[in-house]
Amino acid sequence: MNVFDRNINFDALFKFSHISASTQEHLKRVYASFTLCMFVAAAGAYIHVVTHLFQFTFLTGLGALGLIIWLTATPHSRETEQKRLGMLAGFAFLAGGWALGTLLRPPYSSPLLSLSIIPTAFLGTAAIFACFSLSALYARRRSFLYLGGFLLSGLTLMLLSSLVNTFVGSTWLF
């Protein structure tokens, strides 16, 4: 089966009905895979910054491209599920070390930039991702699925702003 021959139902985007149990189970698996990829990519970026393992960025990029093409070409079945997850994790590791590690390198070499950029970016990404994941996992209706991620992200931003305001005492934040 060709990747481009898939039938995609675009009318499903505008349905606001209940989400079936099988769809929620699929969402749990997808978000578990995304969570795994986020942590593996963070590990790849950390290894790149600390050990200079990914100095050959061209070869790392080719490896990541090869893994994603191999993942796309491997048919989905129960027997190949773990192999495909390993390919996805390998892609996340190489892409994290190659792309993220290269982007995160300048803060360590520049004395003007703070070293807290990396954990702040990771925790911010993890918080927003957790908001969207919780929305997808606990929404029973599609309308709540669409709104939940944005509302939880805004709530997280307001919570962090009020926490910072407790220590800073800004008149801009109430």
**Distance N to C terminus:** 57 Å
The portion of residues assigned to helices is over 70%
Structural class assignment: mainly alpha
Total E-strand runs: 0
- Counting H and I runs of at least 4 residues, what is the number of helices? 5
**For the report, how would you describe the main beta sheet?**
none
Order of helices and strands: HHHHH
| Range of strand content | under 5%
State the shape.
Answer: flat
Q: Please tell me how large the radius of gyration is.
A: 20 Å
Give the tally of structural domains.
Answer: 1
Oligomeric organization of the protein chains:
single chain
Low-confidence stretches: none
The overall pLDDT, averaged over residues, is: 78
Subcellular location: Membrane
GO cellular component, one term: mitochondrial membrane
Family: Belongs to the BI1 family.
Keywords: Membrane, Transmembrane, Transmembrane helix
Structural features, described:
The mean pLDDT is 78. It is built from 5 helices and no strands. Helix content is 72%, strand content 0%. It has one domain (20-168). Helix 1 runs antiparallel to helix 4 (117-138), helix 2 runs antiparallel to helix 3 and helix 4 runs antiparallel to helix 5. With 174 residues, it is an all-alpha fold. The chain is flat, with a radius of gyration of 20 Å. The longest helix is centred in the first third of the chain and has 31 residues, at 21-51. It has helices at 21-51, 57-73, 81-109, 117-138, 142-168.
